[in-house]
Design a protein that fits this description.
Layout: H1 3-13, E1 16-25, E2 29-34, E3 39-46, E4 49-53, E5 60-62, E6 67-71, E7 75-80, E8 88-89, E9 108-116, H2 119-128, E10 132-135, H3 145-158, H4 163-185, H5 192-196, H6 202-210, H7 218-224, H8 229-240, H9 244-262, H10 267-273, H11 279-290, H12 294-312
Parallel strand pairs: 2-8
Antiparallel strand pairs: 1-9, 2-7, 3-6, 3-9, 4-5, 4-7, 6-10
Length: 314
């Protein structure tokens, strides 16, 4: 797995795993409702449950340590517990990360959250994941998933000094470990997550990522991957869903968006750095991919950032 490339893309699309809810319960229980976020995830910290959502053939059984990512789903039903008593409905106000007195050996313990990304990242990850991605802890035994989930729950339930900061960091690590484990457990759909983990294409991908402004040709990229031009082009399209040079152009646009958000480079200089012969050619390509000109994009995202900063300022 090309971890460096994955980290690089994570930085570009500003991916964040945000813990937003959770509960511990004994006896029969159920939690259901509509989903407003495009990408949500649920982690079964302790106990067992059964998850149902739209777009899947049947319920998914969750065991301790399992994590599920829901991609573009509209509703969710999770239920669990044992016994003959009445089934308790977990209300939204109870899904508030209160775990005082929770016993992971007895209770069903569930954590929930969302995956935040910038617009480019949402497009990439939505295409890279199926409607429901189930990561099984029993299969992920060799990964860091168990450790990340344990540390995250300790911070969520411990109410210790600095826990809010720690929860944000462990939420990030949990998401990374979930995606790492999922790559090894499932047949990924065509997309950036699959191409980043393809060993045969890694040499060609490394060239494009290292020198995105170079005028790469199919012959050169195929040679780096030790494949014929035809075989390379076919495999790249099958794995990524895009022809190699289209992927290169998309990669350039991700780099351009980061530069425009975070830096003050002139548009013409950025165009030259990314391999475009003129500012006009770059602006046309950028508008075709992003939907607005580079200058308008820069002004908009910086204005939105200023409003957000003012909103959270004391």
């Amino acid at each position: 797995m090309s971890v460096d490339h994955l980290s690089e893309v994570f930085d570009l699309v500003e991916v964040r795993g945000v813990i937003s809810g959770g509960f511990a319960v004994r006896g029969l229980w159920r939690s259901c409702g509509d989903i407003s976020e495009r990408l949500k995830f649920f982690a079964m910290v302790g106990g067992r449950a059964r998850l149902t959502t739209d777009g899947i053939e049947g319920p998914i059984d969750l065991e301790p340590g399992d994590v599920v990512i829901l991609n573009g789903r509209s509703w969710l039903n999770v239920e669990g517990g044992t016994g003959n008593g009445p089934r308790r409905e977990i209300l939204p106000e109870e899904n508030d990360l209160r775990f005082s007195g929770a016993d992971r050996g007895v209770d069903d313990v569930l954590l929930g959250g969302r995956i935040d990304l910038n617009p480019a990242g949402r497009t990439l990850l939505l295409q890279a994941l199926p409607p429901v991605a189930h990561v099984r802890a029993s299969v992920a035994a060799e990964s860091n998933l168990h450790g990340s989930l344990d540390r995250l729950f300790e911070e969520v339930s411990g109410n210790r000094m600095g826990s809010a900061f720690a929860i944000r960091q462990y939420g990030q690590l949990l998401l990374l470990d979930v995606l790492r484990a999922y790559v090894h457990q499932a047949e990924l759909p065509a997309g950036w997550l699959r191409v980043l983990t393809d060993e045969r294409l890694r040499p060609a991908l490394s060239l494009m990522h290292a020198e995105p402004g170079k005028a790469w040709g199919l012959e050169e990229l195929a040679h780096a991957a030790a494949m014929s031009r035809t075989s390379f082009a076919e495999r790249f399209r099958t794995v990524s869903g895009l022809p190699p040079l289209t992927y290169l152009n998309r990669w350039r646009m991700l780099l351009a968006q980061r530069a425009l958000r975070d830096g003050d480079a002139r548009i013409g200089a950025l165009a030259f750095e990314l391999g475009y012969g003129s500012e006009s050619a770059f602006s046309t390509a950028f508008k075709r991919e992003v939907g607005e000109s580079p200058l308008r994009y820069r002004n908009r995202v910086r204005a939105e950032s200023s409003v957000g900063a003012a909103f959270v300022s004391p």
